[in-house]
Amino acid sequence: MQHIISITEKMERNIMDIKLEPFGKIPTEHMFTAEYKNGEWQNAQVTPFHNLTLSPLTLCLHYGQTVFEGMKAFLMNDGNISVFRLDKHYDRFSKSLHRMCMPKVPNELFTNAIKQLVKIETKWIPSSPDGSLYIRPFMIATESRIGVKVSEEYLFIIVCSPAYQYYSKALKVKLETTYVRASLGGTGTVKCGGNYGGAFFPTQLANDQGYDQVLWTDSQHHGFIEESGTMNVMFFIDNVLMTPELSGTILDGVTRDSVLTIAKEKDINISEKQINYHELIHSFENGKHIEAFGVGTAAGVAPIEVIGIGLKEYKCYIEKDAMMFQLQKALYDINRGLVFDVHHWNSII
Ligand SMILES: *Cc1c(COP(=O)(O)O)cnc(C)c1O
Questions:
Q1: Does some domain include residue 111?
Q2: Domain for residue 15, yes or no?
Q3: Predicted TM-score of the model (pTM)
Q4: Which atom of ligand 1 is nearest to the CA of 298?
Q5: Which residues line ligand 1 (CB under 6 A)?
Q6: 166-209 pLDDT, tens per residue?
Q7: Helix (H) / strand (E) containing 227
Q8: Residues 133 and 251 in one domain
Q9: In this structure, what are the phi and psi dihedrals at residue 141, rounded to the nearest 5 degrees?
Q10: What is the largest CA-CA distance in the chain?
């Protein structure tokens, strides 16, 4: 299906203004909502963007029974709109909901809601090479009751926001060996709001020391690298693409999976196993070629320039010919329909 993108002069100006705003600050004009009551989903509708009215007793406000997703729609080279890896995001959303005792959203409801909303918001998808529409489906527990329990009522909401490059320059990350993001058996593998609340304080400490993000280590040994902020993390060392295995505390990132798949097709050697930071220091001290980068929907492939470990800072390779930029470009080409979509990752709407 071909869609003609007609952006009025006024709208174009609005989108340009949004570029100056922080990520996720400006919503598009519409939103989707559906209510879960008496054991079923009802009142599914797209409405103008509006504030919610909730009782102060609402469960999610107290006990964090919330789940979210983050995905993107892209304006492709041929003028079509594509939502990237809709199915994989749906699967993860379902997994997160299960872990948080929240009701399943039928695939059809989820998929149709996203397609319908994105279609309505087509004009808000920036056409610039770094532009996309960030889509945030989420669910909150809405039963009005302050007693600790699993809610019997929920709201499933989808909002969108025009997005541009998330990080304007290569990142400085600080290896975190005091605080933890997630521990085995916890909720680190799912996308729930509670994972973030506890991450703010250590992140703020890292920010105060001039770092953009923390690089989390495992909760048992503080030795194995996990992930960074809202991104999974990868290294390219000695011609091997390395990323921590999905150990039970790391989020199963869609971008992580996409980049690994692309790398395999490029015949790059891949290692998915635990990465001890002492090994990393050893590689730095032996003068090896080390690239480090974050991978996530919001940030894409985000180069890491400096890793702070203890009192030392280690510099990573970020020149233009780095492997990570080839992977970034390959992902970009798929997103924009510049190459054949062999994996059926693009849902054209
Ligand atoms: C969302 C998220 C990621 C990245 O996942 P993508 O599916 O690639 O966007 C990585 N780590 C955490 C903690 C996240 O919440």
A1: yes
A2: yes
A3: 0.94
A4: 9
A5: 70, 191, 227, 230-232, 251, 253-256, 296-297
A6: 898 999 999 999 999 999 999 999 999 999 999 999 999 999 99
A7: strand 227-228
A8: no
A9: -80, 120
A10: 63
Instruction: With respect to residue 140, please indicate whether it lies within any of the assigned structural domains.
Output: yes
Taking the centre of ligand 1 as the mean of its atom positions, its distance from the CA of residue 6, in whole angstroms, is 32
Residue 18: what pLDDT? 75
Q: Which of 69, 215, 225, 231 to mutate to test the pocket of ligand 1 (most atoms within 8 A of CB)?
A: 231
Domain boundary among 164, 187, 211: 164
Please tell me the distance from the alpha carbon of residue 256 to that of residue 252, in angstroms, as a whole number: 7
Ligand 1 pocket, mutate which of 297, 331, 335 (most atoms under 8 A from CB): 297
What CATH number is given to the structural domain containing 138?
3.30.470.10
Cα of 15 to ligand 1 centre, how many Å? 26
CATH number of the domain bearing residue 312: 3.20.10.10
Q: Is residue 2 predicted with pLDDT exceeding 60?
A: no
Q: From CA 106, how far away is CA 310, in angstroms rounded? A: 47
Q: Considering the chain, what is the average pLDDT of its residues?
A: 94
Residue 31 pLDDT: 98
Residue 20, classed as helix, strand or coil, is coil
Are residues 222 and 286 part of one domain? yes
Q: How far away, in angstroms, is 165 Cα from ligand 1 center? A: 16
- 191 strand-pairing partners: none
Q: Ligand 1 centroid vs 70 CA: distance in angstroms?
A: 8
**Looking at the structure, do residues 326 and 229 belong to the same domain, yes or no?**
yes
Structurally, the chain folds into a number of domains equal to 2
**Strand duo 30-37 + 132-141: pairing:** unpaired
Of 81, 111, 119, the residue nearest 93 (C-alpha):
111
pLDDT digits over 18-49, tens only?
777 888 989 999 999 999 999 999 999 999 99
| DSSP H/E element including 47 | strand 40-48
Is residue 198, in this structure, part of any structural domain at all? yes
Helix (H) / strand (E) element for 332: namely: helix 323-335
- 164, 186, 215 - which closes a domain: 164
* Tens digit of each residue's pLDDT (9 = 90 or more) over 73-98: 999 999 999 999 999 999 999 999 99
Together in a domain, 133 and 254: no
- How far apart are the CA of 109 and the centre of ligand 1, in A? 23
**Residues 212 and 124 reside in one and the same domain:** no
Give the structural domain span for 315: 171-335
